[in-house]
């Protein structure tokens, strides 16, 4: 049984993991960089250890240092959160070699899903629909042009090792593709150490809808329904909700079953998410699999009443899941918005000193927070400073609760995307549930520029 | 004479010109890095790099002068 967990992460997710561990009577160890000495998660943990300077290679990606702290404090398990080392197969292997339980799937499945090309092939083998495109790395810009003309523009050019929207670009013609191929190959090489690129057809009017999976070591795999995450900027999610206002009950069932079948074929364990693109006719295509807890997991927790971090810990303890797929149901509606320290018009980062931070105490809100009053947001990490989750009996009630909460959220000293979120909740198309991946471009930026 | 200013707070990731270089309008002068995002900062006008106010690794605030182009 796990008695002490070291959290190889920071910010709101570190705090979130500590909360569940404490509830379960598990000791927690935080690790932090020099830039995060005053972060709330550090004070929340039972023990905390300094990793080193702010740069991620010297702190949150420093495997040797994290493992030596784990040994020193007598931790028996590692929770990697999301980002950083969470999908790093080598880290998982090192943990296991040191006798630490890695709270996540096997390194084998992580590696396979970490390569988008290998993931496409694995899904095709498991009979999951994939977006038309290439199943191997494209050798050159010339080869890319030839394939693009066979599939037809517009095309998504993607880095096989990519993530967070980096190394990914829509191209509409040969000229754009040639230019993007060179620059994205270079970028992917710099960021991920792997410049392999592949092509996918761009699905027009697509929605991003993902299925939360949970799987134990006894072959049980369940899906906890979908999350609709189409509203994105810079290819990163801004607002997520569950259930999706778009898909029919039949599609929900089909997508859930497809995701469960894929996880079974992969012999997947622990929490994971399969992301799909869903077109206007509710056809769905595999996009990628995230082999870790997701930022937006709270909306699923709100509609199912489950604690996903608790399930992760139970699975890591080799307990059998007691969920019954047939009796699992969706209760009400939940929406999460990510509060980013950024300019709401250009989406440029806005680090700096938060002079006032007051969270809303309105109806049915839940907050996952990385910062506090009188706090310095540094330029070293992701711009997300908190997550606001609201729920309601139905979507309309959740939207109203979200609006009230956003109006009462007071953050001064830095710029945040709250003005953007307020515009989204007032948007007619959002109210109708007409959210596609081009929502921000079509209904936010366009309006911003015409006014 | 024109001043090239930072349009966001962040670290100077790369300085891509040298003092004395002649630059064209819209040519990148430095690349800033903040919160996992790289933003190239270009000069609006052509000229010669008269002075570089920053070095790689420096922290700049939004509105800080990065270079003077003459």
What does this structure look like?
- The complex is a heterodimer of chains A (451) and B (70).
- Chain A is of the alpha+beta class and 451 residues long.
- Chain A has 3 domains: 4-103, Rossmann fold (3-Layer(aba) Sandwich); 132-201, Dna Ligase, domain 1, CATH 3.30.1490.20; 207-450, 2-Layer Sandwich (D-amino Acid Aminotransferase, Chain A, domain 1), CATH 3.30.470.20.
- Chain A has 15 helices and 20 strands.
- In chain A, the strands form 5 sheets. An 8-stranded antiparallel sheet of chain A has the order 13-12-9-10-11-14-19-17, with helices on both faces.
- In chain A, a hairpin with a 5-residue loop joins β9 and β10 (221-233).
- In chain A, α4 (89-97) runs antiparallel to α5 (107-114) and α12 (395-408) runs antiparallel to α13 (418-426).
- The radius of gyration of chain A is 21 Å and the shape is globular.
- The N and C termini of chain A lie far apart (59 Å).
- In chain B, the strands form 2 sheets. In chain B, strands 1-8-6-3 form a 4-stranded antiparallel sheet, with no helix packed on it. Chain B has a 4-stranded antiparallel sheet with strand order 5-4-2-7, with no helix packed on it.
- Chain B is mainly β and 70 residues long.
- Chain B has one domain (2-69): OB fold (Dihydrolipoamide Acetyltransferase, E2P) (Beta Barrel).
- The model of chain B has no long low-confidence stretch (mean pLDDT 92).
- Chain A binds chain B through residues 164, 234, 341-343, 346, 348-352, 379-383, and chain B through 7-11, 33-37, 39, 59, 61-62.
